[in-house]
C-alpha cells in the first residue's frame, strides 16, 4: 500500500497518544503495518484486554511508526482525545480540521459540565482546556480559520457557546492583527464561551418560544446578562475581558441594546466582537420558531446593520466566513 493510500484509510498512533489510551483496553481497533508484505493488518480489537506482552509489542510498533487506527473510527478517537486536549499541542499528525473537531467536542463537554454544576471545579477544568486552545491559536493565528469552519447548526446552549467562542476568537485575532497577549486570548475565549451562562437560569420553555415573547418572557431572557455576571462574582472572576463579554454582548452601537443601553463609545472591543459573533451564531442555528439563515445571508444581514454592529467587524466576518481560504495569507503571525 502506498504511503498516500495508507494515510487515507488509517491514522497513525504515536507513542504519546498510545500512552493516553487505557493500558489494557484501547478504545479503538489497532492496526499494524507489516513491512514484509507492505500490508496493514488488524492487531487488536477495541475494548478487549491486551496482555502485558502484547502491550509491550504495541508500544514497540508505535515507536517504529507502524501502529494505526482506522480513519472511520475517528469519532471514538476524537472523543477520547478531547479528554486529553494537551496532546494536541505535541502531535503534528492531525490535520487542522481534525484538531478543530476535537476542540469542538472537548468544549461542548466541558461547558455542559460547567452549566450543570457552575462551581469552581468544572470552571477550572474548562479554563485549563481554554488555555490549551489559546496556546494553539497563539502559535499560529491562521488556525482560527479551521475553528470557524466547524461551527454546528443544531441549536443548544452548549453548541451556541462553543460556536460563539470559535467565531469570536477568529474575529478578535483578525481585528487585532495577531497582536495580543496569550493571557488575554485565554480570557477572550473564556468570555465568549461563557457569554450566555446566565441563560441556564432561564426556563427552557421560554427559550423555545422566543419568537413570540411576551413582556414577562423578555425580562426573563434579558436577565441572563445579570445572572451571568452574578455567577462570575460568585466564582470571584475579575477579568475585565470576561465580564465585558457577559455585560455587553447585547448592547448595540446605537444605544438600542440591553441591559444598559450603552452607545458605541462605551462598548469595549471585546463587547463588540462578542455581539457580532453571538448574533451571527444565533442566526445560522436552527430554532423551533424559525429556519436557520445560510451563512452568506447572515453575514450580509449583519453587515447591513451598521447602526447596531461594528462595520469593521462585520467586514472581517465576511472575510472569515465567505472568503475563508484567503485568511491564512492575510494573517499577521506572531513570532
Ligand atoms: Fe445573550
Ligand atoms: Fe448568545
TrEMBL record:
<dbReference type="InterPro" id="IPR037522">
    <property type="entry name" value="HD_GYP_dom"/>
</dbReference>
<dbReference type="Pfam" id="PF13487">
    <property type="entry name" value="HD_5"/>
</dbReference>
<feature type="domain" description="HD-GYP">
    <location>
        <begin position="136"/>
        <end position="333"/>
    </location>
</feature>
<dbReference type="InterPro" id="IPR003607">
    <property type="entry name" value="HD/PDEase_dom"/>
</dbReference>
<protein>
    <submittedName>
        <fullName>HD family phosphohydrolase</fullName>
    </submittedName>
</protein>
Amino acid at each position: 500500500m502506498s504511503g498516500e493510500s495508507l494515510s487515507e484509510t488509517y491514522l497513525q498512533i504515536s507513542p504519546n497518544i498510545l500512552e493516553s489510551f487505557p493500558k489494557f483496553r484501547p478504545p479503538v481497533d489497532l492496526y499494524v503495518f507489516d513491512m514484509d508484505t507492505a500490508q496493514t493488518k488488524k492487531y487488536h480489537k477495541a475494548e478487549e484486554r491486551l496482555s502485558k506482552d502484547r502491550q509491550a509489542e504495541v508500544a514497540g510498533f508505535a515507536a517504529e511508526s507502524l501502529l494505526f487506527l482506522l480513519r472511520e473510527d475517528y469519532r471514538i478517537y476524537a472523543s477520547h482525545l478531547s479528554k486529553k486536549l494537551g496532546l494536541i499541542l505535541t502531535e503534528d499528525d492531525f490535520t487542522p480540521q481534525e484538531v478543530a473537531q476535537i476542540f469542538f467536542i472537548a468544549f461542548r463537554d466541558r461547558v455542559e459540565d460547567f452549566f450543570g454544576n457552575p462551581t469552581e471545579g468544572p470552571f477550572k477544568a474548562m479554563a485549563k482546556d481554554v488555555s490549551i486552545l489559546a496556546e494553539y491559536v497563539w502559535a499560529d493565528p491562521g488556525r482560527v480559520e479551521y475553528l470557524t469552519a466547524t461551527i454546528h447548526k443544531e441549536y443548544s446552549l452548549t453548541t451556541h457557546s462553543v460556536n460563539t467562542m470559535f467565531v469570536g476568537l477568529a474575529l478578535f485575532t483578525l481585528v487585532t492583527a495577531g497582536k495580543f497577549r496569550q493571557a488575554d486570548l485565554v480570557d477572550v475565549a473564556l468570555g465568549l464561551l461563557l457569554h450566555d451562562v446566565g441563560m441556564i437560569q432561564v426556563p427552557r420553555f421560554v427559550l423555545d418560544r422566543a419568537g413570540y415573547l411576551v413582556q414577562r418572557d423578555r425580562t426573563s431572557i434579558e436577565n441572563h446578562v445579570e445572572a451571568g455576571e452574578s455567577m462570575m462574582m460568585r466564582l470571584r472572576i475579575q477579568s475585565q475581558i470576561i465580564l465585558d463579554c457577559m455585560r455587553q454582548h447585547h448592547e448595540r452601537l446605537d444605544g438600542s441594546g440591553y441591559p444598559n443601553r450603552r452607545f458605541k463609545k462605551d462598548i469595549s472591543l471585546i463587547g463588540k466582537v462578542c455581539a457580532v459573533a453571538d448574533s451571527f451564531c444565533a442566526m445560522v442555528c436552527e430554532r423551533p420558531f424559525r429556519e436557520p439563515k445560510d451563512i452568506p445571508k447572515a453575514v450580509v444581514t449583519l453587515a447591513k446593520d451598521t447602526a447596531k454592529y461594528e462595520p469593521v467587524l462585520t467586514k472581517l466576518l465576511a472575510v472569515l466566513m465567505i472568503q475563508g481560504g484567503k485568511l491564512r495569507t492575510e494573517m499577521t503571525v506572531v513570532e
